[in-house]
Every structure is written in C-alpha cells, then in structure tokens.
Amino acid sequence: MTETSLPSDKMDASAKHVFWASYFGWLLDGYDTTIYAFVLAASLAFFLPNLPAAKRLPYGLEFFAIFLVGWGSAFIFGPLADKIGRMKTLGIAILLYALGTFFSGLSYNLIEFGIARFIAGFGLGAEWFIGGTGVSEVFPEKTRHIWAGRFHSAWYAGFILAAVTTPLLLLYAFNGNPNGWRYIFFIGIIPAGILAYIRIRAKEPDVWQKKKEKQGEKMSLTMSFKVLFSNTYRKTTILMILVMVPVITGLYGGTLFAPAAINTLVTDAINKGVLANTSSTWYTVLGGTTISAFTLLFCLIMPYMVQKLGRKLTLTVFMVFMIFGLLLAFGLAYNQQNLFAFLPLLILLGIGGADFSVFSLWVPEIYPTEARAGGFALITALGRYAGAGLVFVISALTVATKSLGTSLAYGSIIFVVGIVLLMFVKEDRNKELDRSVDRMALDAETQ
C-alpha cells in the first residue's frame, strides 16, 4: 500500500462508535496505569507504615508485575472476541476494569490490593487488542494505517490526563487526607461509565459480522488458536511474541517509573539546597506529560514513517530511542542525581514509547478475521507475562545495586535482543487486511 492521502474525517456511524469505544477503552488503560504510578507512594505508605520509604519501592515493582500478569491473562478475551464479537467482549472487559479499580480503592491490606490490581489488569488487558482489531476492521485500506495511529495515541492521552489531574487532586483536593489515594481510584471509575455508554451504541465491524454469518459455529476459540499455530502463522506468531517482550518491559520498566524517579531527584535537590523546599508535584507533572506528549505525537507520525520505512525499520527506530533513553536518562542522569538533565532526556523515552503503535497497525494485518483478535491477544499476552518476569528482575537488581537507575539502564539490553529478533520477522509492505468471508484459514482446517 503506497497511498499517502490524508484520512477522511467523515466516519460513518458504525465506524465512529467502534473507533471511540476502542479509543476510550485504550485511554482507560493508560489512565489507570498512570494513576497507580502517582498514588504508589501513598498506597504503599498505608500498607507498609513501618517500612522506610526507600525500601517500599520493590513492592511497587511487584504490584506492577501483578498488574501485568492480569494484563497478560486477558489473552482469553482475544479468541472470545473472534467467537462472539469485538464489542461484546469489550463490554465484559470494561466491567472487570471498573470492579478492579473500585476494589483497589477499598483495599485494606496487600493481598486485597494485589487481587484488585490483578482484576483491573485483567479487564484493561483486553482493551488494546480488541480495540486495535476493531479499528483495523472498520476503516478502508487507504486510511486504516492513520486511524491505527490515532487509536494508539489514546493510551498516552490517558497518561497525560492522569499525569495532569492526579497530582493536582492529591495536592489540593485531598491534601493531608490519608485516604486521598483511595479517592483517586474511585474517580477512575467515572470514565468507565462513559465508555460503557459508547460501547452500547457500537455495532460489530461488518467484516466480522459477515464472517460470522458465513461460518457460524466454526468460528470458535479452538479455531482461533489453530490458526495462530498453523504452518502459515506459527513462526511469525512466536517471533512477534518475543519482540513484544522488550516493548512491554520498556513501558513498565522505564516510562512508568519516571514519576517515582522525579520525586526522588526533587527530594535530593531540596536536601542539597539546589531547589527551594517545594512540592515535587509540578516536576512530576512536567516529566509525565513530556513523555506522553512526545509518544502521542509520534503515534500520529508513525503511519507516515511506516509508509516510508516499513513496519520493521520504524519499530527498530523507536526501540533505538528506548535504548538511548534508558541509558542516558536512568543510567546517567538519574544516577548522577541530576534532575535538570533527567527531565529533557525523557523526550527520548517519549519518542521510543511509540513502538507500541506499530503493533496496532501491523498485527491485525497478519491474521485472518477468525483469528485476528486471538493473534493480537496472544502476542501481547505472552509478551506481558515475560515483561512481568523482567519487572521482578528489575526489582531484584534495584535491591542488589541499590539504584533504580542502574537496574532500569540494564533494561536497554533486552531492546538490543528485540532488534535482532525483529530481523527474522517477515514483512510485506503492501500487506492488506484480510477481509475474506468465503473460507476459513485452510491451514487450520487441515490440522
């Protein structure tokens, strides 16, 4: 596909509802994940009051990992979306997200909090692959790549929304209130209600409906998995799962720990007399919005990069930015306790964070309709499980090296491995979304 035409802003009603249901679902993921980063210190202070603040951070890493396991466990929603529909499955996921977020605010011990974060992750984990699949199916080839970029920017819009509102609420609305972090979670349920309304209005993509009408009960969870590991798709499925690992690790290992890192650097600067005794809130907001703004921008630029460079090279460029971002921001500036060098280096992590957006465009192209959501889910899920394991490794490294910066800088190594693996993934720059309805995947039928 070589068209460079600008997308039409005139969506039909069906495409509009699917797009916005998918967009706000993915926005919720970024929002919820980010509010946790901002209430991390307060929640851990409640659960671990007798533990010094410096020793609580590994617990924060472990709760990120628990959330990731829930995120990964959501892979079952992929084959389910292939069987019963994209929007129906999205509705189930929204409900689980709302329950998990609500009970996060009600938790009174680490076990309850861990279970609540798992449920929230389980619900949110479906938003990316269901949304990405739905958006890919409701737009024509001429503009599909651009709407994929717009869809993916939603996560970072959610990040910015949380980065701007959460610290201000904690500072002004709930300042001094020991339950302020709970109220933040309760507020997080409000967007879920809005999303539920949009989801009710959304109809299933035509390509899925036509396939379901043609194939009926043949479209099942079993069929979805058979296609993914058929002779045609097995190698690509495995390689894409492995490439996803550093992308996930980069997000949770680097980007989302920027608020905690900034808070530490501000405190150090105050103690040294470099800064006046002021709240770290404004610096935290600045850092969070810097990362998210540049990621959002490059999500929108990504479709044009893909047309010029291809999927593989575009993804490689973003991963290189992540390598240098982790090394320079955390390995150098953070370890040197240099706040004013750390903040501008977050731009590198922001640009690199757009690596996720390439998957939103690329993965739906790989699989046929009866396995599209399942394939997207499996690639993201197993990558998330591995990412969760690596977050535990980062936690152990933080304890061993006594430096968050050093442990996160080591995360750059996995990106190098990812770039090498990416070389073996087959790419077809002219690939179009499979919209056929006359037959199922032949490889799966013959096994």
Description:
This protein has 447 residues and is an all-alpha fold. It has a single domain, classed as Growth Hormone, Chain: A (Up-down Bundle), CATH 1.20.1250.20. The protein is built from 21 helices and no strands. Helix 1 runs antiparallel to helix 8. The radius of gyration is 21 Å and the shape is globular.
Outline of the structure:
The chain is mostly helical and about 450 residues long. About 75% of the residues lie in helices and about 0% in strands.
How do the helices and strands follow one another from N- to C-terminus? Answer: HHHHHHHHHHHHHHHHHHHHH
Q: Please, what is the CATH homologous superfamily?
A: MFS general substrate transporter like domains
Q: Remind me, CATH topology?
A: Growth Hormone, Chain: A
- The CATH architecture term is Up-down Bundle
Radius of gyration in whole Å, from Cα?
21 Å
Helix count equals: 21
N- and C-termini, Cα separation: 32 Å
Overall tally of structural domains: 1
* % residues in beta strands: under 5%
Number of strands: 0
Backbone shape? globular
The CATH class is identified as: Mainly Alpha
Helical content (DSSP H or I, runs of 4+): over 70%
What summary fits the major beta sheet? none
Task: Pick out its properties.
447 residues, mainly alpha, Growth Hormone, Chain: A, disordered N terminus
